[in-house]
Amino acid sequence: SLPCRSDATAEKEMTLAIIKPDGLYDNYADKIKNAISDSGFRILNERLVQLDEDAAMSFYAEHSSRSFFSDLVKYMTSGPVLIMVLEKENAVADWRTLIGPTDASKAKITHPNSIRAMCGKDLQRNCVHGSDSLLSAQREISFFFKEKSPGSGSMEHDEL
Ligand code: UDP
């Protein structure tokens, strides 16, 4: 019979996770990080960032025409956020499953074990972000973790 692919050789994938301002403000960072490692993700990189309006607008550019956009930008700039790169096999889809549906108030009923059910409040304040596709993950990871060219200011990205 064919040999099984071992964990050591399985294809790893990266996704971007964000603990949003409400999640940090309500002190959920440790609980969220425990859920992350209990589910087999490795945190490859992390940054605590205060987003400014430009950064939040650019990160959520795909939603710029939506009625909730300006409120979303206000929310995402209302306090610091914790940005993390997560690695695991099937990381993008598995992180989306772990965080649960967008509307945290509904998640509490339909997905009670999800992270958004645990620490989110409603459709906007849902305490965490997860990339929705492999392509989004790549864009979002390089948005926050750009390779620094030699001679560029090292604090560049902490001003976002
Ligand atoms: N959001 C909102 N109102 C809505 C839909 C979304 O305030 O009607 C916020 C919410 O914080 C959500 C973010 O905008 O997480 C991005 O929306 P998206 O539809 O991409 O949801 P997600 O992929 O984060 O579940």
Would you write up a description of this structure?
This protein is α+β, with helices and mostly antiparallel strands and 160 residues long. The chain has a domain of 94 residues: Nucleoside diphosphate kinase-like domain (Alpha-Beta Plaits, 2-Layer Sandwich), CATH 3.30.70. 39% of the residues lie in helices and 16% in strands. The protein has 8 helices and 4 strands. It has a 4-stranded antiparallel sheet. The radius of gyration is 16 Å and the shape is globular. Uridine-5'-diphosphate binds next to loops.
Characterize this entry briefly.
The active site is at residue 129. This protein has 160 residues and is α+β, with helices and mostly antiparallel strands.
Keywords:
Alpha-Beta Plaits, globular, alpha+beta, 16% strand, binds uridine-5'-diphosphate, 160 residues
- CATH level 4 superfamily of the domain at 13-89 and 128-144: Nucleoside diphosphate kinase-like domain
Lateral arrangement of strands in the main beta sheet: 2-3-1-4
Report the mean per-residue pLDDT as an integer: 91
Molecular shape: globular
Q: Please estimate the helix content.
A: 25-40%
Bound molecules: uridine-5'-diphosphate
Active site: 129 (pros-phosphohistidine intermediate)
Binding site for ATP: 20, 68, 96, 102, 116, 126
Protein name: Inter alpha-trypsin inhibitor heavy chain 4-like
Family: Belongs to the NDK family.
